[in-house]
Amino acid sequence: MAKKCPKCRSDNPDTATFCADCGTQLPSLRDIEVTETMATPKKELTTGSTFAGRYQIIEELGRGGMGKVYKALDAEVDEKIALKLIKPEIAADKKTIERFRNELKFARKIRHKNVCQMYDLGTAEGAYFITMEYIAGEDLKKLIRKMGFLSPGQAISIAKQVCDGLVEAHKLGVVHRDLKPQNIMVDEGGDARIMDFGVARSIEGKSITGAGVMIGTPDYMSPEQVDGKDIDRRSDLYSLGVILYEMVTGQTPFEGDTPFTIGVKHKSEMPKNPKELNAQIPDNLSRVILRCLEKDKENRYQSASEMRSELNNIEKGIPTTERIVPEKKPLTSREITVQVSMKKLFIPASIVVAIAIVAVLIWQFLPRKSEVSLSNGKPSLAIMYFENNTGDPNLDHWRKALSELLTADLSQSKYLSVMSGDKLYNILDNLNLLDAQSYSSEDLEKVGSRGGVENIVRGSFAKAGDNFRINIMLRKVKTGELIGSERVEGRGGEGMFTMVDELTKRIKENFKLSADEISSDLDEEVGKITTSSPEAYKYYSEGRRYHTIGENRKSIELMERAIAIDPQFAMAYRSIAVSYNNLFLLAERKKYMEKA
Q: How many structural domains compose the chain?
């Protein structure tokens, strides 16, 4: 049996006493056997498992040099967090762990909207891990790869926000030391967030990294980092200059076959003017980038605030349509810039709705900035996700699908105000009720209060053979008073759409709408305003789920499958347009919005 060095993790003969690579004393075979039996370090976590007695693993988010990152629910505080499981070979180095522990003391003090909040360093089940704020979005590196390069306005908008985060960190005496596009997230609200201050250190504190030790990523390192010399806030500004260069040209200023080659170029080679690679870059922005990339840090910007001020002046001369990240713009939907909610494009597949009617509907359902209540004198309601009482988890997609179908059907009414599916999703997400299989009276009251609705519809479905039974109850939010309950039965598949249409009619009757009002109400069959194909709707529903967690490419793929089944599925076209918008591919967005 080979002996593994506890420090460098290299294999040694079982007779060796010291490591041949680093000279560390090796444990005896007996010690190794006992240690490995008692505490085998975890290398990965599985979805659905609980780690450290409190973190329920939701999914793997990615992996990097330090280890894998997971989205998890912290059961102690009932909040989603990101958990980084450190690789065993890194965690085995006590000096590395001590460095993380020491530097985290400083990193967790940084509290700013453009910085991901660091929480803690812990150990459990033989592994070390770091917890931090969970941010739904996409890292800047992936964004650059997808787009090729960003417009000057887009790049400046992101760089300004990074400067804002650095101003706060530097004020507290913390340097990032590994600033790169992979460590900058663009969240669902369009804000840039700096990640991984866990490897930061205090400028003023005593470094335990050791002189001459190089920390960082070669493509984005300052010359002083390459040399392993002392660094300060101006090193972060050099890295930000490299990032800006890459945002506007699609490539880094220095490339090479090895980290050493790239490092040498950072120290000795002058970068090509970015304007030579992209003629659309303003001269003053090129000057900002090249100043950041000065070899001598005395010639760079001396503070992030100074650099931000310069970027701000340049931005004033750039059209606002070029900027992807609007400043301080609150969003009530995860669909970042599209202003028309889902129910506005429920276009019948078999008929052409008169343009005037469509215009009225779109105006009626445009989101209002100061919306508090949906009522406007009409009965208002929200349709909760349904309970799956079939015992078959493969039918769970109908929980949300029935809610959305019923919402779509009822939203046509000119006598009712119905909470949109997007708004319900956001409220349930904020209340941590997205995965709830049932709702308490208190849950329903919170949803009603936050959504500004007076009534709640909750329902369930069961199955016997090929037949489905759907039950609903309509209640007053404040009093819990039962207004009515309904049950419909029918076959699965396309029969589900027929049952939704029947429930729509009965809900209107429960609100005491007259026969004349019901007959005159705008009420196309739900299969026409959405899709008559259960399979297409299943792909649509799954695509919506991926869209809400920021996986726009996967969402587009699933929506295209839905459209392949039903080419008249307007909502699927619209969702594709929204996903392309979030990927900043505006030409594609326009094409699919036109199809919708």
A: 5
